[in-house]
Amino acid sequence: MPRRARTFRVALPAGAVPPALALLLSACAGPQRPATAERAGAPDSTPASPSAAGPAAAAVAPEAPPATRGRDAFAEGVRLQASGDLAAAVVAFDRAAATAPELVWASFDAGVLRERLGDDDGARAAYDRALDASPAFGPAAQNLARLELRRGRGEEAEKDLRARLERTPDAVGPRIGLAELHLGAGRLELAEEESRRALKADERNVAAMVSLATVYHRKKRHELAKMVLENARQVDGRDPSIWNRLGFVELALGNRPQALEDFRTAAALRPDYPEAHANYGAMLADAEDYAAAVSELELAARYAPRSAAIWLDLGNAYRGQKEFAKAEEAYRKAGDLDPGAVEVSFDLAVLYLDGDKPGLAAAARLEQAIAYFDAYEAKGGKDAKIAEYRKDAGRAIDREKKRLAREEKDRLRKEAEARKKAEESRKEAEAQARREAEESRVANEPAAGQHGGRRSTWRTTAPRNAAEEEQARRSEEAAKAPAPAPAALEAAPETAPAPAAAPETAPAPAPTAVPAAAPAPAAAAVPAVTPAPAGDAQAARAETPAGGPALPAPSASPGGTPGEERGDR
Fold it and tell me: Which UniProt keywords are present, listed alphabetically (predicted)?
């Protein structure tokens, strides 16, 4: 999806409330600010232990001068602030300002920390104390003006500053504060007038020079603004506000690389100057160096946690790093700080359009993006690319729905194939189980298996041995038949009885001559065979009529074929 170019946050946009410019000057040297090095040679305020001091310890050590005690409290506030204990640091700064009112930086830092902690009324009181102690103290007047602009109390702040000017007409601080109020309200002519009056009273006042250069920049007189800022650099080249404003001027002149360098310089000069870090971070995000942008913008949010503009830019940097949850959280934080910020809805819409939110379907995410675009336009927001974004989202939703339909179809097909394969596997397993069961049964019944083998062999050879089996059966029946009864012999005198069958090993007696009669039918030679089963012989005997003559068995003689006619010897 296309990415919307971000608008850089300026210090005081025309007609808009500026973000907090918290000038935490606790690390800067200056003639108005005490340093811990100034305590060299000052008496130690800690009393000695009585046991170590001897007899003189009974006397109470003299109390340190207020200025010394104020510097000690101020140093403690700086240490506590560095450790992150802001509430304790505020207490130390307040104690330093109460002990030594001339330490205007103590009151100023107390006001800045109170703003970070959300105590706007306490911050306003701290800035007032600083101006009471030093009417020319410009930083306090500037922060007071910006604080009241954010709270919608610009008119009240202007009356207060003009009252101070009436009491001290030559004071530079109230005029610098008035210039800030006019810049915030877009009254450029009045802002220029107040800046010139401040410079007339103090021609080397850097804050007044930066205010005048800002007026020229707004009037698109960029070259003149750059010249004023170059003069300010000659006075104090380590003031980060000069480099920060130079960055905007170079951007207006079309020199982006130089603008990036100016913002980098401003950020490097003061880690606690949030405006410089915010602008430098926005430039880095626009250059798609998202990791560096996140580092700068997180630092800016640390020192200006109530700036909606900083949280918006931080959300963009998170979005560039594909950190959806952090980006959404930063955008919502900006919306909470400034409910009227229409850009929050736009940035959320782009986030849902481009990113992937874990646990949210793509189609639902795209529909939510369209809903955020609707909210942006409902709040009065306008952007020429929204129509294109809507079309992109609609096409993406259609593609997603088609993709889901394809996936569902593929899922059903794969499920059907899986069921079919499972059924085939089941059937194959059942068949294999049956085969194994049959093999196991056969293995456990060897006798039945052998019998089945003989039957198979008999069936195979049955046609070939049918005649032999029949002849063997008849021979066995004849051998087992009883001798004929006498009556039967008398009934057939002309028929000679057949000799008794002899064993195969004994020689048969020589046959006697028989009367001429009908020859016996020829029979094939019968080889020695396995006797037929007893059941077959019994069946043959059952077919002979009871009391009838038994059929003679064919004779067999060695040396010739049974049933052949022999001549008389």
Answer: Repeat, Signal, TPR repeat
**Residue 404 is encoded by which pair of tokens?**
């889901």
Separation between Cα atoms, residue 374 and residue 559, nearest integer Å? 128
Looking at every residue in the chain, the average pLDDT score rounds to 78
Contact 133, 102 (CB under 8 A): yes
Of 201, 139, 148, the C-alpha closest to 172 is: 201
For residue range 447-468, list pLDDT tens digits in order. Answer: 555 554 444 444 444 455 566 6
What does the CA dihedral 320, 385, 249, 297 come to, rounded to 10 degrees?
Answer: -20
DSSP tally for the chain: helices H, then strands E: 24, 0
Evaluated on CA atoms 423, 425, 431, 437, the torsion sign reads negative
Nearest to 179, CA basis, from 188, 171, 166: 188
- Half-sphere CA count of 556, side-chain side, radius 13 A: 17
pLDDT at 258 over 70: yes
Q: End-to-end alpha-carbon separation of the chain, Å? A: 133
Other beta carbons within 10 angstroms of residue 11's beta carbon come to: 22
| CA–CA gap between residue 355 and residue 328 (Å, rounded) | 11
In angstroms, the Cα distances linking 488 to 124, 492, 546, 568 are 160, 7, 12, 29
| pLDDT tens figures, 363-394 | 899 999 999 999 999 999 999 899 999 888 88
DSSP H helices, 462-560, are 466-480, 486-490, 534-542
User: What's the Cα-to-Cα distance from 480 to each of 101, 249, 276, 440, 538, rounded to whole Å?
Assistant: 155, 142, 135, 46, 10
CA neighbor of 359 nearest in space, from 324, 401, 327, 384: 324
Query: Which pLDDT score is estimated for 472?
Result: 74
Residues 6+ positions from 74 with CB-CB distance below 8 Å? 34, 92, 93, 96, 103, 105, 106
